[in-house]
Design goal:
- This protein is mainly alpha-helical.
- The chain contains 19 helices and no strands.
- Helix 3 runs antiparallel to helix 9.
- The longest helix is centred in the middle third of the chain and has 33 residues.
- The radius of gyration is 22 Å and the shape is globular.
- The chain starts with a helix and ends with a helix.
């Protein structure tokens, strides 16, 4: 394919089939993310019996390694040379290590001490997070390479986030609808507390992760000839590398989006880490009701995926993110707040189930829409970086995005662990064994914490200053530069 054809294709956007393949790859991240966000803290603290603070600390240690691996992988993939281009070798290489390590984190050895289990979680969490970076950063970086169009980027990233949420949520639905009921025994009347259920969950999840990565890599493989090539080889010192990284990401819009997204994902991780605590202990829903609420996220994914491109076209990404985000963020803790002030129906009634189901389905849909808009805003920074440095650095920008997502959500889970400890939720407690005063404390700590995080996000993202006009002007500037250079 000629350079002119490649540029034309990038401006128009990829085919529907390519969007499906590209988007489906996010199932791998979604499955990994849902497991580590929603179930890991619950599994190790309530099923295995490890102190929730140790689980949170293990996650925090893994996050420190994340801070190192993300920019390395991003910079490496921007400058990697192979017959398969810059991105695909990383995608293929990550598939097996991610799948294997994900399986083993759900099958901890029996009889180990708390100290040994702590290091078991630390090592596997590091391996999982490192290799998901090796896959997710280069894979995500394909979005601005596949299209430079302002609206089309929101469209292609809608596929990415749709499949990410659907993949992770499908595993949760399968867990509550099929896996946990299948592992009910005379001794364990709720399969959610049976360690064998999680071993099966890990086996299924690891298989899906492997398939998703391979489908996405193979499905976008044909685009390799038209993707951007690595820059010419240069003699680079470590100082020059870090200087180039700084020049690429320097700027108010990047740092505003970076900090805002870090806090937004921390809020997401906090919510995810406590979600099944709230539905199990706070609302006292049955496994079937929890499965139904989890199933509602499928509707949320459709809602968010469909809404983001419309918002982009009608009012723009930044304004849309501010409006949609404000509604979603205020709505997120609202049912819990209303229960704390005792204006909702009692637990066990049909009314409380439907209130929580509808509220969560709509709110998660709006949050997904916000996330797509924020990711598309990040993609629009690529050309700004190219103007500043003369280099295309999609990998660096999406390494930052991967880092924000993993570190933020992981740190949110760390916060969740300490909230559980402060509220006094005991390790190993079964449904119905947590006192009303403890549950009230849990909600009373959670609501102001999550609202503070979310409102700070809105304040910071308002500093982002790239809109449709500025993006299109940047594209024209780059085109004129290329024309002058021949």
């Amino acid at each position: 394919m000629t350079t002119a054809n490649a540029r034309s294709s990038a401006a128009v956007g990829p085919s529907f089939g390519t969007k499906l393949a590209y988007g489906f790859g996010s199932v791998a991240y979604g499955v990994k993310d849902a497991g580590l966000k929603y179930f890991l803290l619950l599994f190790y603290s309530q099923v295995v019996g490890l102190d929730s603070r140790l689980v949170s600390l293990a996650i925090l240690v893994a996050l420190i390694f994340d801070a190192i691996s993300d920019p390395i992988v991003g910079y490496w993939s921007d400058n990697f040379r192979s017959k398969w281009g810059r991105r695909h070798p990383f995608m293929y290489a990550a598939a097996l290590p991610v799948a294997i390590s994900y399986y083993f984190i759900w099958s901890p050895p029996e009889g180990w001490s708390d100290s040994a289990l702590f290091w078991y979680v630390v090592v596997l969490a590091i391996v999982i997070r490192t290799f998901i970076t090796v896959y997710e950063t280069p894979s995500s970086a394909l979005a601005p390479e596949l299209t430079s169009d302002y609206d089309e980027r929101s469209s292609i990233l809608s596929f990415r986030y749709f499949f990410g949420w659907v993949g992770g949520n499908a595993m949760a639905v399968i867990a509550f609808a099929l896996i946990f009921p299948a592992f009910v025994t005379a001794a364990i009347t709720n399969g959610q507390f049976n360690p064998d259920a999680y071993a099966f969950y890990g086996m299924l999840g690891s298989s899906i992760i492997f398939v998703a990565i391979m489908v996405s890599a193979l499905g976008t493989h044909k685009y390799i000839p038209q993707l951007r090539k690595a820059p010419p080889k240069r003699q680079m010192t470590l100082k020059m590398i870090f200087k180039e990284i700084y020049q690429t990401i320097a700027g108010r819009s990047f740092f505003a989006l970076f900090i805002a997204s870090l806090l937004a994902f921390a809020a997401s991780g906090l919510t995810a880490g406590l979600t099944f605590y709230f539905v199990t202990y706070f609302w006292e829903f049955s496994s079937a009701q929890i499965g139904a609420i989890t199933f509602g996220v499928f509707l949320s994914a459709f809602m968010g995926g469909a809404l983001a491109p419309i918002v982009t076209k009608k009012i723009g990404k930044k304004r849309g993110a501010l409006i949609v985000g404000l509604v979603a963020f205020i709505g997120a803790p609202m049912p819990i707040f209303l229960r704390l002030i005792d204006v909702l129906p009692e637990n066990g009634t049909a009314e409380i189930f439907w209130i929580v189901l509808v509220a969560q389905t709509i709110d998660v849909g709006l949050i997904i829409c916000y996330q797509i808009l924020a990711a598309s805003m990040m993609a629009d920074l690529v050309e700004q970086g190219e103007v500043a440095t003369g280099q295309r650095s999609e990998g660096m920008f999406f390494a930052a995005a991967t880092f924000m997502r993993k570190f933020g959500e992981g740190f949110g889970i760390v916060i969740a662990g300490f909230i559980l400890s402060f509220a006094g939720v005991a390790a190993g407690a079964q449904q119905g064994e947590v006192s009303e005063s403890t549950l009230w404390s849990l909600g009373a700590i959670y609501v102001p914490t999550i609202l503070t995080l979310f409102m700070t996000v809105i304040a910071i993202v308002s500093l982002y200053d790239i809109d449709r006009g500025k993006h299109e002007a940047t594209l024209k500037d780059l085109a004129s530069r290329k024309a002058r250079l021949g």
